[in-house]
Write a structure and sequence with these properties.
The chain is α/β, with parallel strands linked by helices. The protein is built from ten helices and 21 strands. Strands 1, 13, 14, 15, 16, 17, 18, 19, 20 and 21 form a ten-stranded mixed beta sheet that branches. Strands 2, 3, 4, 5, 6, 7, 8, 9 and 12 form a nine-stranded parallel beta sheet that branches. It has a two-stranded antiparallel ribbon with strand order 10-11. 46% of the residues are buried.
């Protein structure tokens, strides 16, 4: 099939770029002697998860119970839920999956640990639990500097039936903040990655010295991961502990935010949105606009450090050259609003490709990914793991 035969809007994944992204992150993991456990929330696709595992990824990371169910149902035998699962119904669904796969999950509160224990205490074997740690993002997790709180939670987990303290886990979301205090983008990524690693190693050392918990190097998971912090990741050792696994997700696609952060270049972006011009207008103020058939329900309204508008319109998808005269400056539900300047000249029916700001949200809103090689559609993958 040719791209010309696709109805728009359509999500396109450039095959060769995707393969390069998969290979590069696996090489990063191998070079640092860590397990690559990719976060599948970016693509939610069984077909793509299989390709990650064929490259050497061990297990998957997910954010929802539905994602866990989908991938275990497709044959994945090791799934980590990097999200504080809450509620009896969700834990019961995970417990069912343990007949088919190794399931692990995170907690960051005593209440969360007790909820989990109430379900898994009835199981034949305890479930592996990792303490979620906040290394600077400010979201969920025990703060990395509060060793007392972390030790207390670890001791509580160790004493609860049905739970096994298997490690600590974090997401360095602060890597998305970009530079500060005169830093370059590269320096900011190095700082975020170093903090993520060193703060987790420090906490593991503190847990190893605590009474009532068994924390032994080489048998304790230290799990880190965000695509931007992985761009600068280098493993290290402290008191016998090293990072054991990385969990990036966005790296398979990359997007405009990753480009702005310096974690990727525009040619690294495997995901684009194919869209059609539905209207062109010259407004009373003299500005020229085109409107395309992809709005908020395709693109995300997410913006981030260094982004301008809601995506990067390409002048030439083959070379991934941005168009200097087309700006995706506004979105409504079914409309993308483009401002035209310079030599930008679009007419109704024209098609163009746009790199979204945030690939994960863009994919989550759609049913299919069309794998392309140039202008040829070589495969179509379903977005399988939608829902909670």
């Amino acid at each position: 099939m040719s791209l010309a035969n696709l109805s728009t809007p359509a999500l396109l994944v450039e095959q060769s770029c995707l393969q390069d992204n998969l290979a590069a992150m696996q090489e990063k993991a191998d070079a640092n002697d860590v397990t690559l456990r990719p976060h599948a929330k970016t693509h939610k696709s069984v077909a793509l998860a299989r390709r990650q595992r064929e490259r050497g990824a061990e297990g998957l990371t997910v954010a929802t119970v539905t994602e866990a169910e989908t991938f275990v149902g497709a044959g994945v035998d090791d799934v980590r839920v990097a999200y504080p699962v809450t509620g009896r119904e969700k834990h019961e669904r995970l417990q069912v999956l343990r007949d088919e796969a190794t399931i692990s999950l995170t907690v960051d509160t005593v209440a969360g640990a007790e909820q989990a224990s109430a379900i898994y205490a009835e199981a034949d074997t305890p479930v592996n639990v990792l303490i979620e740690v906040d290394v600077g993002h400010g979201r969920c997790g025990v703060h990395w500097s509060d060793e007392k709180a972390t030790v207390t939670l670890a001791q509580h987990i160790a004493a609860l039936p049905g739970l096994r303290l298997a490690g600590i886990l974090t997401h360095a979301g602060q890597a998305y903040n970009g530079p500060s205090d005169g830093e370059t983008e590269v320096e900011a990524l190095r700082r975020a990655s170093r903090h993520e690693r060193d703060r987790m190693l420090s906490l593991a050392s503190a847990l190893a010295e605590a009474d009532g918990v068994e924390v032994i190097p080489h048998n304790f998971d230290i799990s880190v991961g965000s695509t931007p912090s992985m761009a600068a990741f280098e493993n290290a050792e402290r008191d016998g502990f090293r990072v054991t696994e990385i969990r990036p997700g966005n790296y398979v696609m990359h997007d405009a935010i990753q480009v702005a952060l310096g974690a990727a270049s525009l040619p690294d972006c495997a995901l684009t949105v194919l869209t059609t011009v539905i209207s062109t207008q010259e407004k009373p103020d003299g500005t020229h606009h085109a409107f395309v058939d992809a709005g908020k329900k395709v693109f995300t309204t997410d913006t981030g450090y260094g982004t301008s508008g809601h995506g990067i319109a390409l002048a030439d998808a083959a070379t991934m050259q941005p168009h200097p005269g087309i700006k995706v400056n506004h979105l409504s539900e079914e409309h993308g609003w483009l401002t035209l300047s310079g030599d930008a000249d679009l007419t109704v029916g024209d098609r163009l490709r746009i790199v979204p700001n945030h690939a994960c949200v863009t994919v989550a809103n759609q049913d299919r990914l069309h794998v392309v090689d140039g202008n040829a559609v070589v495969d179509t993958w379903t977005v399988d793991a939608r829902g909670w």
